[in-house]
Amino acid sequence: MSKAINVRVAVVYHSGYGHTARHAEAVATGATSAGAEALLIGVGEIDRYWDTLEQVDAIIFGCPTYMGSASGQFKMFMDASSRRAFIDAKWKDKLAAGFTNAANRSGDKLATLQQLAIFAAQHGMNWINLGLQGGHNSSQSSEDTLNRHGFYIGAAAQSDADAGADEGATPADLKTSAHLGSRVALAARQMAAGRAALSEDLAERQAA
């Protein structure tokens, strides 16, 4: 019988008005559904979790898009990581992914997702994209489809600025975020299984 492959996925996020927090929760739920242990970490409490981030298999970054880029609070976390993780390459070869939310349909969310992907690349991480086709792109499709906004590099959501967190986060976008969490968790399990198989193979070769 094969050994169980246990992986941990951290969801590191900032939320200004609660909408992005709903998506962070959906991402974590998706990761859990795919067999991973999911850790929700707000950037406001990041100092308690730097050591934890060294131990996880994947980190999914999430923040609202403010003025065409990651929120200032999330950028502070990014900058702090330069001395807490970047210098000693503590996140190298971990999996990474990203999600963002804004009030506008576009709101230049692509710029934020690109910013997150570059951030992950600077840490030597392996970026996992959304893996979905554009959802609402024909007269036969609807607002209820996954990836209704047609982003590919990560998950992007839209929430009305005058709506509360519960009303503003739409079911379709929450399902898209959950899909991202599941996809990353599955990739993390595959990578962990591959490492275990490689280790066993090397051990058998050395013993032969």
What are its keywords?
208 residues; alpha/beta; Rossmann fold; 7-stranded mixed sheet; 7 strands
Tell me what you see in this structure.
The chain is α/β, with parallel strands linked by helices and 208 residues long. It has a single domain, classed as Rossmann fold (3-Layer(aba) Sandwich), CATH 3.40.50.360. Helix content is 44%, strand content 18%. The protein has 6 helices and 7 strands; from the N terminus they run βαβαββαβαββαα. The chain has helices spanning 19-33, 50-55, 72-86, 109-122, 165-168, 171-207, and strands at residues 8-13, 37-42, 58-66, 69-70, 95-102, 126-127, 155-158. Strands 1, 2, 3, 4, 5, 6 and 7 form a 7-stranded mixed β-sheet that branches. A hairpin with a 2-residue loop joins β3 and β4. α1 crosses α6. The longest helix has 37 residues, at 171-207. It starts with 7 loop residues before the first strand and ends with a helix. The relative contact order is 0.19.
Write the layout of secondary structure elements.
Blueprint: E1 8-13, H1 19-33, E2 37-42, H2 50-55, E3 58-66, E4 69-70, H3 72-86, E5 95-102, H4 109-122, E6 126-127, E7 155-158, H5 165-168, H6 171-207
Parallel strand pairs: 1-2, 1-3, 3-5, 5-6, 5-7
Antiparallel strand pairs: 3-4
Helix pairs in contact: 1-6
Shape: globular
Termini separation? 23 Å
Main β-sheet description: 7 strands, mixed
SS-derived structural category:
alpha/beta
Predict the CATH topology.
Rossmann fold
- Total strands: the figure is 7
Rounded radius of gyration (Å): 18 Å
CATH C-level category: Alpha Beta
Residue-averaged pLDDT, rounded?
91
Query: Beta-strand level of the residues, as a percent range?
Result: 15-25%
Low-confidence stretches: none
How does CATH name the architecture? 3-Layer(aba) Sandwich
Number of domains: 1
Instruction: State the helical fraction.
Output: 40-55%
- Listing every helix as H and every strand as E from the N terminus to the C terminus, the arrangement reads EHEHEEHEHEEHH
Number of helices: 6
CATH superfamily: Flavodoxin domain
